[in-house]
């Protein structure tokens, strides 16, 4: 993957068959080349039967699972090395040793240190924005808008706290790695548009301020969320419990959108 005809003659002349005549042996008729070829193919087929399809599939699946696990170990090891040493000081050799893999194994699955970091950054971003799909935009969720906001806020802050070191590195690397920066901006744009659509739906149900511009509101609230979490978990500027932080940030969202819980039917 990445680390990064004719047979030769034997020199002897062909021997001519003996002349046919009285007292001479009658030679058997020469078999045609096509008959000989078919015979050889049959013998070959009998000599080397194909393995059963299930055995082949099982062997391939086993190799695939092993390769997948090796790749996962390299990703886990790379995350640890990046968090311990930073991106610039992290070495591929250290990643391979931490994963208990050969140096060549790294190059088999990844082209560079930058590539494995980008994959880790994408996975972290995915985990941080999971509450958007699982709570805020979940159609099957029967909770009220304020309840959803608080649950999504809690999950997001918990994830950010776990990934604080990686989030700090991603922010640093995005300043000089165009691909990391482009990935973050694309994901931010996509998620902001989805939040804006959620605000529009709340406005239609008359549970959010109808005078708000959904896209502007979604962009501002997203920036508030990211910056607040960074100041809290990366720089240690905020001093409060998780419960208090969730409650305060959720209240800011609700006040900004003027969220109203729907009236219960009698």
Number of strands: 0
Mean pLDDT: 81
Q: Strand share of the residues?
A: under 5%
Per CATH, which architecture of the domain at 124-257? Orthogonal Bundle
- Global Rg: 34 Å
State the helix count: 11
How would you sum up the major sheet? none
What is the CATH T-level topology of the domain at 124-257? Answer: Tetracycline Repressor, domain 2
Q: Please state the overall shape, judged from the principal axes of the Cα atoms.
A: elongated
CATH class wording of the domain at 124-257: Mainly Alpha
Quickly give the structural class.
mainly alpha
How would you spell out the order of helices and strands? HHHHHHHHHHH
CATH superfamily of the domain at 124-257: Tetracycline Repressor, domain 2
- Give the uncertain stretches in residue-range form: 1-48, 54-61
Q: What helical percentage do the residues reach? A: 55-70%
Span of the ends, CA to CA: 66 Å
């Amino acid at each position: 993957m990445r680390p990064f005809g004719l047979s030769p003659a034997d020199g002897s002349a062909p021997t001519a068959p003996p002349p046919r005549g009285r007292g001479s042996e009658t030679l058997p008729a020469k078999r045609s080349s096509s008959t000989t070829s078919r015979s050889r193919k049959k013998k070959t087929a009998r000599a080397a039967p194909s393995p059963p399809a299930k055995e082949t599939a099982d062997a391939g699946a086993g190799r695939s699972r092993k390769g997948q696990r090796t790749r996962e170990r390299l990703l886990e090891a790379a995350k640890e090395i990046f968090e311990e040493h930073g991106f610039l000081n992290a070495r591929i050799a250290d990643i391979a040793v931490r994963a208990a893999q050969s140096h060549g194994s790294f190059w088999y699955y990844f082209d560079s240190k930058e590539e494995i970091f980008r994959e880790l950054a994408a996975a972290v971003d995915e985990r941080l924005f999971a509450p958007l799909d699982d709570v805020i935009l979940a159609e099957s969720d029967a909770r009220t808008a304020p309840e959803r906001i608080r649950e999504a806020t809690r999950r997001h802050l918990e994830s950010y706290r776990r990934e604080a070191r990686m989030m700090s590195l991603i922010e640093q690397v995005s300043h000089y790695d165009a691909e990391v920066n482009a990935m973050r901006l694309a994901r931010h744009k996509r998620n902001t548009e989805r939040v804006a659509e959620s605000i529009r739906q709340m406005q239609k149900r008359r549970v959010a301020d109808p005078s708000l511009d959904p896209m502007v509101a979604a962009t501002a609230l997203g920036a508030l969320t990211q910056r607040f979490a960074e100041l809290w978990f990366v720089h240690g500027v905020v001093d409060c419990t998780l419960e208090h932080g969730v409650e305060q940030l959720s209240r800011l969202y609700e006040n900004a959108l003027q969220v109203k819980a729907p009236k219960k039917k009698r």
